[in-house]
């Protein structure tokens, strides 16, 4: 998806049609369309030929995109969980693993990257009532595996805004939720994690349309991707105008929410409740 969106922008900037691009790599217009949507694999030779057609001669710029093409054809660690991982979410896990900056607003649940194992199990068990215990275990293991990126050498910056409602939904019961709140306090003290809470006292805010995540990929100089999850699918938005609108909403949420210190104070207050 990242490579395809970049190739599409380069093609459009030069005013080249999909038919013309397809002719250069001996492919159809529909093949170029599927490449640009990230729905097919890439041959490095095709990418190199398209970059030449689009006038990209700088070695660094070409190298970054050719490397991305090679990476796109490798099986990620999450493919081990393909038996329980929907295709539409496998795409997200791949993007999450490559991101340099992850910005999230959540209104219902603690985001997966910040969940304790007990909280994750409670949430997954509730949402997948007809799934076997073994599959529940696989889903929980996948979620815990995803969290390893926060401790990796190239850990992304994680900026989270939580609606206060998230903190009052006691998934798994009081003990599980208290463990989750303590976990949020601990994680919020990591240098690459910024946690803010939108308090009830603020009233209406810029995130009333629902949860979303913005993924940034600074090392590839690519436009951010907005992820909006639905019940059985997800939207991936990379048009500049869409990304900009979500970016403005998140900036407003960050400005209007409690700061990191105030957010930790609120979490500590909730832990003292009976």
UniProtKB/TrEMBL annotation:
SMART domains: HTH_XRE (SM00530). CDD domains: HTH_XRE. Gene3D superfamilies: lambda repressor-like DNA-binding domains. GO terms for molecular function: DNA binding. Residues 6-61 form the HTH cro/C1-type domain. It comes from the Bacteria. InterPro entries: Cro/C1-type_HTH, DUF5753, Lambda_DNA-bd_dom_sf. Pfam families: DUF5753 (PF19054), HTH_31 (PF13560). This is Helix-turn-helix domain-containing protein.
């Amino acid at each position: 998806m990242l490579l395809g969106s970049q190739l599409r922008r380069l093609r459009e900037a030069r005013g080249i049609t999909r038919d013309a691009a397809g002719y250069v790599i001996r492919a159809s217009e529909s093949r170029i369309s599927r490449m640009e949507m990230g729905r097919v694999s890439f041959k490095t030779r095709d990418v190199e030929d398209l970059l030449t057609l689009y006038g990209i001669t700088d070695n660094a710029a070409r190298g970054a995109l050719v490397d991305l093409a090679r990476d796109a054809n490798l099986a990620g660690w999450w493919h081990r969980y393909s038996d329980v991982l929907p295709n539409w979410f496998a795409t997200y896990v791949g993007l999450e693993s490559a991101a340099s900056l992850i910005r999230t607003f959540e209104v219902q649940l603690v985001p997966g990257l910040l969940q304790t194992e007990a909280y994750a199990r409670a949430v997954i068990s509730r949402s997948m009532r007809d799934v076997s215990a073994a599959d529940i275990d696989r889903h929980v293991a996948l979620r815990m595996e995803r969290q390893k990126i926060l401790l990796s050498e190239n850990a992304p910056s994680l900026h989270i805004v939580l609606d206060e409602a998230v903190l009052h939904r006691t998934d798994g019961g009081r003990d599980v939720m208290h463990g989750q709140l303590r976990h949020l306090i601990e994680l919020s003290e990591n240098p690459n994690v910024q946690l803010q809470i939108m308090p009830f006292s603020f009233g209406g805010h810029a995130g009333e349309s629902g949860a979303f995540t913005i993924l940034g990929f600074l090392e590839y100089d690519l436009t951010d991707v907005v992820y909006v999850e639905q019940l059985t699918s997800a939207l991936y938005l990379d048009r500049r105008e869409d990304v900009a609108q979500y970016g403005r909403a998140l900036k407003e949420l960050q400005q209007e929410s409690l700061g990191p210190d105030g957010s930790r104070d609120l979490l500590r207050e909730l832990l003292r409740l009976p």
